[in-house]
Design goal:
Elements lengths: L31 H4 L4 H17 L1 H19 L5 E2 L6 E2 L1 H5 L20 H13 L6 E5 L5 H20 L2 H14 L2 E10 L1 H4 L1 E15 L2 E3 L6 E3 L22 E2 L2 E15 L1 E8 L4 E3 L11 E7 L2 H7 L19 H11 L9 H4 L3 E7 L10 H10 L4 E6 L2 E7 L6 E5 L15 H21 L4 E4 L35 H4 E4 L5 H18 L17 H40 L4 E7 L3 E7 L8 E5 L9 H14 L4 H8 L1 H11 L9 H14 L5 E4 L6 E6 L11 H14 L3 H4 L1 H23 L5 H15 L11 H18 L1
Antiparallel strand pairs: 1-2, 3-21, 4-10, 4-16, 5-9, 6-7, 6-8, 11-12, 12-13, 13-14, 14-15, 17-18, 19-20, 22-23
Helix pairs in contact: 3-10, 5-7, 13-15, 20-21, 21-23, 24-25
């Protein structure tokens, strides 16, 4: 991927689908490669077209923005806020009452503003319940009889794993779930970008074209055909240095020069990648009445960016790009902008001055049939003829930046909470907001009561007590608090009970239980009961079965959202693979860790991405399982293995043993046979990269027709039982190797055959060396058969010899 200085693109033409500081736009917006052959009048007509579409549903969007903002502010804990009539700005109701003409009543409005944020608690519980596992897709070739389609379907699973790793799919999933809870919908943009910040860089050679001498001054001898440099003639005149014949003027050829491309150094080249980003309804605007993305005439994406970053992506448009505090693409564009900024505000109020100066970058995907909103048939037909699949319009305010042909449905996917409400359905958190408001109000009332009224109010009879003597004096328990009584009656006629009266306020216990009911009902209405995130369930349900039934019912509700996410992920995966097919210019590679400590490169070859495939949601994948639940399942299976033959057979597989050890989470646990399994898998990788070696007869020097593997098993070290099991399982799981790599397959079979032969020899050999057996039999056997007369009637030696032979027999049998 070498680059040429001053050109700005890679040698293989690598370009992203959007401009970045690493892949800036070349030239101004009016140049054909950037304006897509649009005249200045057409550029402004397209911007006006987008504005007309956005104005059609601007009132509905105002309500949508308020709903989404309120949910997001409640999640942040800014829960004492309200919208002004017809406005998008929040204001704090209590602070408003304490300002201006209402300031005189500030003491009466000095209420608590405690936030007991169970809205956020339920949101995090919802995210935690569905985030442990990323939805998986199944890949199918478009035509099972086309080899290219089948090959691409097999490569797609590895490719999507690389793409998900580059985009941190686990984090994207958590963001998706949070948007579903707070805004009800989430949009995903999939495209190819060249960006050093996201994809990194690669050191590549830099070439330059220089004028270079291709051939020196030289002579050619027409007699012997020799050609030699002029310097080789020496001082003896113009004679051929080989045949010594004299050379004429026609034998001289001057030096030749020409341009030559040569490497002059190296530079950091930004890498490309399939990038995915998630957006909420605050950033994405489209037809709210559309039930799918393809039914919306436009999709408008607006984000605020630093003016420096925007100028770096569009350097030729430097002067036209300026800091701005407004958005001009619709009548309520500035309100949308304020709403997006408030998400990052800690108070939910006005944002910082620097934030207000960020220009709004607007990107709009226009469907080919959407051009006909204008009452100009010629304009619509001309646009469709030039952009048959649709158009991407990039602008900031009314300033046109670039345009290119683009299809909305080939770059965008959508997921929502419910069907039948268009692209902006109700969020999960909508139903929690009223409960949270009532909970906050009631909690503050109770706090106010405990602070001001729990001790009652003491009334004093001013005719009997000098109240000035009590003013500001603390009434401490256990202390003599002197009270001065006025002399208004006869001595002994004035009682303390007549002078002071303590009024007690009543607060029923039901008020305190009401808070618990509000929180519990919010969980039930939202479908996120305490069992989902490990909390205590309904206290009236005392049995484990009842609690489990409640949990199963809640999980059934959560499965609605999980199924929607699975469908969106499958569509996004298909877009990502097709995007890689269309834009990759080199093989992809990632380093993966296998078997705990082994690293290897995982490649995706461009030749494997020439077919057509489709992605489908994995219907077998249920709700995500937490690590604790997975650990418990393995422990239950291990206990069942003591008496269940099926469970025993499962643990006979070393792969299952390793997965169980990982799930149990015991540090440094050694799985029997794991080291041998890792060794065999490494050898298999090496065997498949080589060809088996033919066996040659040492006497004749001719091939015997047999082969031996490039790597032989180790008779003294290897565990042949594990070796055979690993090779068999590998061959069963990779049945396509004989077709794709017949030489490597033959090498692997030769390794397996050699292992079986070595194991057979090992079992056939006696467990006691033959020489040891022969020595014992010959020596001890002769002694055992000596007659008693030869040993003076003592047979002790013969008995010992017989015992030695018996021990030898036992040793051989064992």
């Amino acid at each position: 991927m070498a680059t040429y200085p001053g050109v700005g693109i890679t040698q293989n033409g690598q370009r992203g689908m959007e401009h970045t500081p690493s892949d800036p736009m070349q030239g101004t917006a009016d140049e054909p490669q950037n304006s897509a052959q649009l005249s200045e009048d057409d550029q402004q007509r397209l911007i006006a077209l987008v504005r007309r579409y956005k104005d059609q549903w601007s009132q509905d969007r105002m309500v949508l923005m308020q709903r989404c903002l309120e949910n997001l502010e409640f999640f942040k804990g800014n829960q004492f806020i309200s919208f002004g009539p017809g406005e998008a700005d929040f204001f704090n109701a209590v602070d408003w009452m304490n300002q201006g003409e209402h300031a005189q009543d500030a003491d009466d409005k000095d209420l608590y503003q405690y936030c007991n944020n169970f809205y956020q608690m339920l949101a995090t519980g919802f995210v935690a319940a569905l985030a442990p596992q990323v939805p998986k897709s199944k890949w199918m070739p478009e035509n099972a009889e086309q080899l290219a389609d089948v090959t691409t379907a097999k490569a797609a699973q590895t490719l999507i794993g690389i793409i998900e790793g580059q985009n941190r799919e686990q984090s994207l999933l958590k963001q998706q779930l949070l948007y579903l809870y707070t805004t009800g919908a989430v949009f995903r943009h999939t495209r190819y970008v060249v960006d050093a910040e996201r994809a990194g860089t690669t050191r590549e050679p830099v070439f330059n074209e220089t004028e270079t001498q291709l051939a020196p001054d030289r002579y050619h001898c027409f007699h012997c055909g020799a050609t030699f440099a002029a310097e080789a003639m020496g001082l003896d005149g113009r004679h051929c240095v080989h045949c010594q014949r004299p050379l004429g003027d026609d034998s001289f050829f001057p030096a030749e020069y020409g341009p030559v491309i040569r490497q002059v150094g190296e530079e950091e080249v930004p890498n490309g990648m399939v990038a995915q980003n998630l957006y909420s309804p605050l950033e994405v605007d489209c037809d709210p009445a559309a039930t799918t993305l393809r039914q919306s005439p436009i999709l408008n994406l607006e984000v605020e960016v630093h003016v420096g970053a925007l100028r770096a992506a569009y350097p030729a448009m430097y002067d036209q790009i300026a800091a701005s505090a407004t958005s001009e693409l619709s009548s309520n564009g500035s309100i949308d902008r304020i709403a997006r900024q408030q998400v990052y505000s800690q108070t939910g109020l006005a944002s910082s001055i620097l934030e207000d100066q960020r220009p709004t970058l607007s990107r709009t995907w226009i469907q080919p049939w959407a051009f006909d909103l204008e009452d100009d048939r010629e304009f619509g037909e001309r646009m469709r003829a030039t952009y048959p699949t649709g158009l991407l319009l990039v602008s900031t305010g009314s300033t046109f930046l670039s345009a290119r042909e683009a299809s909305l449905t080939k770059e965008w996917t959508w997921a929502g909470t419910h069907e039948g409400f268009g692209l902006f359905p109700p969020s999960i958190g909508d139903i929690v907001v009223p409960f949270q408001k009532r909970y906050n109000d009631m909690a503050n009332i109770l706090h106010e009561f405990m602070d001001r009224c729990s001790s009652g109010v003491t009334l004093a009879n001013a005719d009997l007590i000098d109240t000035k003597s009590l003013q500001g004096k603390p009434m401490l328990p256990g202390v003599l608090n002197l009270v001065k009584l006025k002399r208004t009656g006869a001595p002994g006629a004035v009682r303390m009970a007549d002078a002071l009266y303590q009024f007690q306020f009543q607060m029923h216990d039901e008020a305190f239980r009401y808070l618990d009911k509000l929180a519990y009902n919010a969980q039930m209405f939202a479908g996120i009961p305490p069992q989902v995130y490990g909390g205590a369930g309904d206290p009236s349900v005392e049995t484990f079965g009842g609690q489990q039934q409640q949990l199963n019912s809640a999980l059934g509700k959560l499965n609605i959202y999980w199924e929607n996410l699975k469908e969106e992920h499958a569509k996004a995966d298909e877009l990502a693979v097709n995007c890689a097919k269309d834009n990759l210019t080199a093989d992809m590679r990632q380093v993966v860790l296998e078997r705990g400590s082994e690293f290897r490169n995982d490649y995706i070859r461009l030749d494997d991405l020439q077919g057509s495939v489709h992605a489908y949601a994995d219907t077998d994948q249920g709700l995500p399982v937490t690590a604790a639940e997975l650990r418990q399942r393995w422990m239950d299976l291990m206990q069942a293995a003591a008496s269940n033959p099926l469970a025993q057979a499962i643990f006979d597989d070393p792969t299952n043993q390793e997965q169980a050890a990982t799930a149990l989470g015991v540090p440094n646990m050694v799985v029997p046979g794991a080291a041998m399994r890792s060794k065999v898998l490494q050898i298999i990788d090496r065997l498949l990269q080589s060809e088996a070696v033919p066996v040659v007869d040492p006497q004749t020097g001719q091939p015997t027709g047999q082969v031996r593997p490039t790597i032989l098993p180790d008779k003294a070290i290897d565990d042949f039982t594990v070796l055979k099991q690993v090779v068999r399982q590998y061959c069963q799981e990779n049945s396509d190797i004989p077709d794709n790599n017949p030489a490597g397959w033959q090498n692997l079979l030769a390794y397996f055959t050699a292992a079986v032969a070595m194991e057979t020899q090992q079992l056939a050999q006696p467990k006691v060396p033959q020489q040891e057996i022969d020595d014992v039999v010959n020596t001890v056997g002769g002694l055992m058969h000596l007659p008693p007369q030869a040993t003076a009637g003592n047979i002790q030696g013969q008995v010992q010899a017989a015992n030695a032979l018996i021990k030898l027999a036992d040793k051989l049998s064992n």
